[in-house]
C-alpha cells in the first residue's frame, strides 16, 4: 500500500465538551463511487457543515460521533472511503470488522447507481456475512437533474434486503436518519447473534445435563449393591 496516504482525523474533537464515555462501538463504512457525496454526508452528520467544493478523498479517513440509543451511549466510528478505482484494494481491506455499510449513489448519476452491484459484490466478498447495509440515493435536492427514480432505488434495496433512503447533505434531508437506521440495524443484528450464542450455550448445557443421567445410570449399572 506504499504511496497511499491514510489520514485518520478524529471526529471526537468535534464533540467539544461532550463526555467521552460510551457503552458500545459500531464500526461503519461509507462506500460508493467517487463524487456521490460520501465525505459531504459524513461531514454534515458529524459536524453539521456543508462544503460545495469537491475534494476527492485520498486513501481513507474516519470520524466518530457518540449517539444515544435508548439508554445506551454508542460510539459510531465511521470510515470515509475513497470512491476512486485506484483506492479499491485499500478500501476492500477496511471491510473486515465493519458492522455496517452505507452504500451511496447519486440520483443525478446513473453509472453510480449501476455500480452499486459491484459495491455489493465487494461487500459480499470482503465483509463479514452479517454486515448490515443501508442504501442511500444521495443529492435528492437536485430534483431537476434526477436520472434515477425513487422506485428504482427501492427495488435495488429490496433486492439486497437493505434499508433505503433518499437523502441530501446539501439541504440536510434524512442525514441523521440514514446513520441512525444503520446503527439500529447493527444493534438488532448484534443482539440476535448474542441470543443465538446464549441459546447454543444453554442447549449445550442442556445436553450435558441430559448426558449426566446416563452417566449416572452407567455408574448405577456398575453398582453391585
Ligand atoms: N446537489 C448536491 N450536491 C452534493 C451533495 N452532497 C455533496 N454534493 C457535492 O458532490 C461533490 C462530491 O462530494 P464528496 O462528498 O467529496 O464526494 P465523495 O463521494 O466523498 O467522493 P470521493 O472522495 O472521491 O470518493 C461535491 O462537489 C459536493 O459539494 C448534496 O446533497 N446535494
Ligand atoms: Mg470523499
From TrEMBL:
SUPFAM superfamilies: P-loop containing nucleoside triphosphate hydrolases. The keyword Chaperone does not apply. Residues 189-205 have a biased composition (Low complexity). Gene3D superfamilies: P-loop containing nucleotide triphosphate hydrolases. InterPro entries: P-loop_NTPase, Small_GTP-bd, Small_GTPase, Small_GTPase_Rab. GO terms for molecular function: GTP binding; GTPase activity. The keyword Signal does not apply. Keywords: GTP-binding, Lipoprotein, Nucleotide-binding, Prenylation. Residues 189-225 are annotated as: Disordered. Pfam families: Ras. Belongs to the small GTPase superfamily. Rab family. Protein transport. Probably involved in vesicular traffic from ER to Golgi. PANTHER family: LD44762P (PTHR47980). This is Ras-related protein Rab-1. It comes from Amphimedon queenslandica (Sponge). The gene is 100640465.
Amino acid at each position: 500500500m506504499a504511496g497511499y496516504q491514510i489520514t485518520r482525523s478524529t471526529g471526537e474533537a468535534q464533540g467539544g465538551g461532550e463526555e467521552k464515555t460510551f457503552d458500545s462501538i459500531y464500526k461503519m463504512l461509507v462506500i460508493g463511487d467517487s463524487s456521490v457525496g460520501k465525505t459531504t454526508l459524513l461531514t454534515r452528520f458529524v459536524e453539521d457543515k456543508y462544503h460545495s467544493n469537491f475534494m476527492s478523498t485520498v486513501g481513507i479517513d474516519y470520524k466518530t460521533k457518540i449517539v444515544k440509543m435508548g439508554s445506551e451511549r454508542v460510539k459510531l466510528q465511521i470510515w470515509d472511503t475513497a470512491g476512486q478505482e485506484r483506492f479499491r484494494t485499500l478500501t476492500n481491506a477496511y471491510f473486515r470488522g465493519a458492522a455496517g455499510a452505507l452504500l451511496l449513489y447519486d440520483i443525478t448519476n446513473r453509472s453510480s447507481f449501476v455500480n452499486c452491484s459491484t459495491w455489493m459484490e465487494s461487500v459480499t466478498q470482503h465483509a463479514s456475512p452479517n454486515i448490515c447495509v443501508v442504501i442511500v440515493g444521495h443529492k435528492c435536492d437536485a430534483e431537476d437533474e434526477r436520472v434515477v427514480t425513487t422506485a428504482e432505488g427501492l427495488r435495488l434495496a429490496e433486492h439486497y434486503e437493505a434499508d433505503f433512503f433518499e437523502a441530501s447533505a446539501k439541504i440536510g434531508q434524512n442525514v441523521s436518519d440514514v446513520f441512525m437506521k444503520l446503527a439500529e440495524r447493527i444493534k438488532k443484528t448484534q443482539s440476535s447473534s448474542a441470543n443465538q450464542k446464549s441459546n447454543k450455550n444453554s442447549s449445550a448445557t442442556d445436553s450435558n445435563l441430559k448426558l449426566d443421567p446416563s452417566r449416572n445410570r452407567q455408574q448405577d449399572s456398575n453398582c453391585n449393591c
